[in-house]
Specification:
With 264 residues, chain A is an alpha/beta fold. In chain A, 41% of the residues lie in helices and 9% in strands. The chains are: A alpha/beta (264), B alpha+beta (398). Chains A and B meet through helix 2, helix 6, helix 7, helix 8 and helix 10 of A and strand 7, helix 10 and strand 15 of B. The structure holds iron/sulfur cluster (5 copies).
């Protein structure tokens, strides 16, 4: 029996999402039994030639070379799945999109002339068509497994797009916004982490990006009622998923009100 | 409405039982007796900054000397200056946590050489719901009307074997409005034992009344004595007083017609601007019953299971049909929730789907208040206010 082949590629990212695959300790042997890992540099130097039945892509597009490479990868696979905040939203490195990259380069590198980088960090879907986006910073290994199982069984993955609040309540947590006055991004953030932070008395940081119908304006207004400043709101929305449209617009809106208010 | 004179209640099984009196030790004995009878006793207990429901084995597990302060979008615990066992009301959880636990496997199969075999589901525990508030007892009755007629296996297997120790309320939260819904602050039916805690003038006792034959048996096993008339009067007075202290009110008169007539009211869109579609209100509501079913398979296809978990009319998938979600705006989703609870529930189940527990008010992260929104719709009733008037225009353009 020939097994379906899997390729895993990396772009600008921290490797955390790919590691989620290796982190599937208990399930890894089962994975290896049903899928052939054909091209996964993080796991093995052995590379089989394309095409690949399914391809996972981690990381955002930050160089002209990467923008070409992703097109090649797209041609080598019928199913391209992006994993993680970098690949699906541009990642934390998308903070550069608000600034001048040349300025950064001069401050950080002794020889900035050796750098060849784009002005922006953008999600893979801005460059090629993507079949499924799996969110998270990093992705949940259980969701990753679910996506692979669904692919193998030829069905739609059970990856809900509702808010973190649903998971929080299913888990039986008490809401930290209501019971402790801790600002939380859970109501505008997509589920997937099993409400990790609220479970440990912290507000959600928005790792899984915007939920299906994010009302960022209403949540931000409530944060202000709870004492947060516009500056804090800009920082909260400009995080791992800063460049996702709803979070980007909200942070721009709050930044504009800092400028109007004149307080930084 | 609430009799001030001592009286004996007819139990549900028809037997008349006189109120008894027990002290804190008696409450401990009650918990012990339920455990002896094979019940898993679940009741209120402090977890972090909140009162949640969990297994309890003595009164020491209860939130002794604690009160909750609730407002729209806030909930805080505080120390009381007494040792009340029940000096708080309801928290974010309700008994549906146990009656329809989220993520319950209701079918599981293993692949065999020539097909598959079914794995029998685990037998659920026999629960004793300890410290159920009158609104929650009413909510369980409402859920009975949802699940029992269709013989829902998950619910029935848990509900039919359960035992309810209700506690009448003497200090409602500011978010409570059971008096307007006719569900509290005293319990009328649907309990096995009802307790009323009395703490005044150096006295601390519990009036204990049976509401079923099993409740009578359980009380008979305790060292309880008959209540004196003045003890009964005192307890009843506290509950009557609680009804007068209700922090909120919901006018139920003509509610169904009001909401049906206002489906096109532009005010729903104004609520939609504030609503996060986060689902918290439906998750904490003790009567909301919507669920979704998920199929899960092992990676190698050797087993499969079907799992039921909670869903909510605030998610897009909930109303997703061919072509997209039917309720795409937040206003439409809020209208669905409120109109179902208060109006179409009446057509569906012959009752209102809200018991006035106030959970949806306290646990809404942005403090959207069902009682206020109903009052606002009433004020802007499009049958009375023509759509061109400033108040409606203002709402529509916001
Ligand atoms: S703690 Fe955060 S995620 Fe959990 S219910 Fe509250 S707002 Fe939602
Ligand atoms: S709608 Fe709100 S007040 Fe009514 S029963 Fe549900 S949670 Fe309680
Ligand atoms: S209000 Fe919504 S979640 Fe609650 S029972 Fe009705 S449709 Fe279901
Ligand atoms: S709504 Fe009524 S019955 Fe429920 S907790 Fe409040 S006072 Fe008690
Ligand atoms: S009414 Fe409140 S709790 Fe309910 S979905 Fe809207 S914001 Fe969430």
């Amino acid at each position: 029996m020939t097994l379906p082949t899997l390729a895993v590629h990396k772009f600008a990212s921290c490797d955390g999402c790919q590691l989620s695959l290796l982190d599937l300790e208990d399930e890894l042997l089962a994975v290896a039994g049903v899928i052939q890992i054909a091209n996964f540099m993080e796991a093995s130097r052995e590379v089989l030639p394309p095409p690949y039945d399914v391809t996972l892509v981690e990381g955002s597009i930050t160089t002209a070379h990467d923008a070409e490479r992703i097109k090649q990868i797209r041609e080598e696979t019928p199913v391209l799945i992006t994993i993680g905040a970098c690949a699906t939203a541009g990642g934390i490195q998308a903070l550069r999109n608000w600034k001048d990259v040349d300025d950064f380069s001069r401050y950080v590198y002794a020889h900035p002339e050796y750098l060849d980088t784009l002005q922006t960090s953008t999600p893979v879907a801005d460059h090629v068509s993507v079949d499924f986006e799996l969110r998270g910073c990093p992705v949940s290994k259980y969701q990753l497994l679910e996506v692979l199982v669904a692919f193998l069984q030829g069905r739609r993955p059970n990856i809900p797009t509702y808010s973190v609040c649903v998971e929080c309540k299913l888990k039986g947590n008490a809401c930290v916004m209501v019971s402790q006055g801790i600002p939380c991004l859970g109501p505008v953030t997509q589920a997937g982490c099993d409400a990790l932070c609220p479970t440990y008395d912290r507000g959600c940081f928005g790792c899984f990006g915007p939920m299906e119908t994010p009302n960022t304006a209403a949540l931000a207004d409530q944060w202000k009622v709870m004492g947060a400043s516009d500056r804090e709101l800009v920082d909260a929305f400009r995080n791992f998923n800063a460049w996702s449209e709803p979070f980007r617009k909200e942070s721009d809106r709050r930044e504009a009100s800092i400028e109007i208010g004149g307080v930084r | 409405m609430w009799p001030l004179v001592p009286y004996t209640r007819a139990s549900q099984d028809g037997e008349v039982t006189a109120p008894l009196v027990i002290d804190r030790e008696g409450v401990d004995a009650l918990i012990g007796e339920l455990i002896n009878r094979g019940y898993e006793v679940v009741g209120p207990t402090v977890r972090g900054q909140t009162i949640l429901y969990d297994t309890i084995t003595s009164t020491g597990d209860l939130p002794v000397g604690i009160r909750d302060r609730q407002e729209a979008g806030t909930y805080r615990l505080e120390k009381r200056d007494d040792d009340a066992l029940f000096g708080y009301v309801v928290g974010p959880q309700s008994w549906k946590q146990f009656l329809t636990p989220p993520g319950t496997v209701f079918w599981k199969g293993l692949r065999t050489e020539d097909g598959f075999e079914t794995v029998a589901p685990e037998e659920p525990p026999k629960y004793a719901f300890f410290g159920a508030r009158p609104c929650d007892v009413a909510a369980m009755k409402i859920q009975d009307d949802v699940y029992l007629p269709i013989e829902d296996g998950l619910y029935t297997s848990r509900r039919k074997r359960s035992f309810t120790v209700a506690v009448n309320c003497t200090e409602p939260a500011s978010t409570c409005f059971c008096a307007s819904m006719g569900t509290g602050p005293d319990v009328n039916e649907g309990y096995d034992i009802a307790l009323t805690e009395v703490l005044s003038g150096g006295q601390h006792y519990f009036l204990a009344e049976a509401g079923s034959d099993e409740g009578t048996d359980v009380l008979a096993a305790l060292a309880a004595r008959d209540a004196r008339d003045e003890e009964v009067v005192k307890a009843r007075r506290l509950v009557v007083h609680a009804a007068d202290q209700m922090g909120r009110k919901l006018e139920t008169d003509g509610l169904k017609d009001l909401l049906y007539a206002n489906l096109e009211n532009p005010y729903w869109a104004e609520i939609g601007e504030r609503c996060l579609s986060c689902t918290n209100c439906t998750m904490v509501c003790p009567t909301c019953f919507c669920s979704t079913v998920e199929d899960r398979q092992a990676l190698d296809g050797s087993s499969a299971e079907r799992v039921r978990t909670w869903d909510s009319c605030f998610t897009l998938d909930f109303s997703y049909i061919h072509g997209g979600a039917v309720r795409s705006s937040a206003g439409a989703r809020y209208r669905q929730w409120l109109t179902h609870k208060l109006a179409s529930w009446q057509d569906q189940f012959d009752s209102i789907g809200c018991v006035g527990c106030g959970r949806c008010i306290a646990w809404c992260p942005v403090g959207i208040d069902i009682t206020k929104e109903v009052a606002a719709i009433r004020e802007r009733d499009i049958r009375l206010v023509s759509v061109g008037t400033p108040i409606v225009k203002e709402a529509a353009s916001e």
